[in-house]
Amino acid sequence: MSINTMTDWLSHNSNLLLGAAWETIYMVTVAGIIGFAIGIPLGVILHISKKGGLLENPRLNTILGAIVNIGRSVPFLVLMVAIIPVTKILVGTFIGTTAAIVPLTIGAIPFVARLIEGALLEVPAGLVEAAQSMGATPTQIITKVLLPEALPTILNSVTITMVTLVSYSAMAGTVGGGGLGDVAIRYGFHRYDIAVMAVTVVMLIVLVQIIQSIGDALVRRFDHR
């Protein structure tokens, strides 16, 4: 394909590609926000309830850990199919961009929880002990010691999660989830259009690079170590 032909093709299909890019951003953003809203507290609970933790509760930790491990072990494509009934109940359909947010969110929650748990493990135990000796409550220790000290690692975890959600959103296109993955499947694969496939791959790469760059900048901004 010549440069002029490629330019004409891009001009003709710009609305399709831009619309798909917006759908991908929409899916990833909403799923990320909900996933973080649930996954971060879950990760905190996993950390503080472990043996020797701030609020040790082995039974709760074992139950939550098992649920998180199950969630992480299910391949995303299998997860999308398995929770179709749940998706239909929540949004009324299992096809489309909004429907894809449900499995994306469910897939993100256990992923975020383990990343947050790992981030909190990096906080020196001495800081927690010092706060306890000063009479700080568990809530104060979590909000003023654990989370602030782990913030750079948490931001890095957020970046990793968002990049992962971009790849998940592309997989959602295989079942009509919308976005760039859907365009790549419908136009690139089924119609054997190499140009569509190449452009959508490039757009996904650019999106990932933007997310990674923003994440790295935020980590540098808040990392005072």
TrEMBL record:
Organism this protein belongs to: Vibrio albus
Family: Belongs to the binding-protein-dependent transport system permease family. CysTW subfamily.
CDD domains for this protein: TM_PBP2 (cd06261)
InterPro entries in alphabetical order: AA_ABC_Transporter_Permease, MetI-like, MetI-like_sf
Its membrane topology: Multi-pass membrane protein
Any GO BP: D-methionine transmembrane transport
Domain ABC transmembrane type-1: 21-212
Domain of life, per lineage: Bacteria
Protein name (record): Methionine ABC transporter permease
TM region(s), chain numbering: 25-48, 60-83, 89-113, 154-174, 194-219
Pfam family, one: BPD_transp_1
SUPFAM superfamilies: MetI-like
One cellular component (GO) term of this entry: plasma membrane
Subcellular location: Cell membrane
